[in-house]
């Protein structure tokens, strides 16, 4: 199927899109805004760097929601999408998805890199059906890219700014139908931040959801200087950032973390004082207790056994009994802005899984890899397309 899709892109610049004629209110809205922009614009064919052709629309005048639009933005874009819930096989590369319209508080970003999160997989499997946006869905929460259009109420960003962010304020409650695994994505100004200059788009794309989760979890747990912490799942996307943030941002007195044997050195390099090999030891049977346990694995039942009296156990997935609690991250660009100095100084480093970055054509393979549960740091997609 992958080969079929790739060859159809080369031979037919306008194949059928996964996105049907508008039927839902949101699709009608998207369609009407895009249509309005097209009618007031000049359409022409453009040859891309890869030799393929596509329609490029140069806006003749600004739409009411768009303050300035000097950058050329095509009418249609390539995006990964699915129109039914299921395993990674439901994902299809669609080259005729409408570029999302830009709300007055939003920016349109040309996505240079995106990253995958386990929640993308859980959502695609239909786990959050009741609160999901309508199908078809372009998945993806994390992105880094360049602002190509700004809404009329946008205050601090302008075209050409390099930004990164997690594009859906609430991950599970009505997440964006048009996510980041696409050439363009529209996102509220308040959810993004200017990209740290010292890291590239691929590194930046892996940060937002994971670092915001790490930050929010540590804050909710009341973590502060001088406290000790145990991080369960220290080598994963979230855990690798919890270790670094606990040490470098919050001033932990002691950081312990769990991983399998080949990843113990990584834990140490991230700042863990104690690296526990979960294939050889049960952390809940060791004598040490901690002020905070941060569980990124789903071991809440064991985590509550190793917390000091009066301490906190924060879990990201699975059940937990008091004093443990679970939360779902809220996207917030101001957290990224606050953490930028730690990234720019190199005190906190993005960890990109060495099997990647995966090219845009290999999103299915990248998801299959993420879903093994063995990723180190973040699974990143770059370049796009
Ligand atoms: N509630 C929220 O807001 C929120 C936000 C972000 C993520 N999450 C959830 O949190 C979980 C972790 O997310 P993530 O992005 O960090 O996942 P991830 O990057 O896919 O995690 C993979 C890592 O987990 C490690 N791991 C697996 N089993 C382990 C075990 N028994 N002990 C220690 N480490 C283990 C693996 O290391 P080894 O190869 O060494 O086993 C691997 O490095 C997911 O369930 C995700 O959905 C929730």
TrEMBL record:
It comes from Lolium multiflorum. It comes from the Eukaryota. The keyword NAD applies. This is Enoyl reductase (ER) domain-containing protein. It holds the Pfam family ADH_N. Gene3D superfamilies: Medium-chain alcohol dehydrogenases, catalytic domain, NAD(P)-binding Rossmann-like Domain. SUPFAM superfamilies: GroES-like, NAD(P)-binding Rossmann-fold domains. Keywords: NAD, Oxidoreductase. Belongs to the zinc-containing alcohol dehydrogenase family. Quinone oxidoreductase subfamily. GO terms for molecular function: oxidoreductase activity, acting on the CH-CH group of donors, NAD or NADP as acceptor; zinc ion binding. The keyword Magnesium does not apply. Residues 86-381 form the Enoyl reductase (ER) domain.
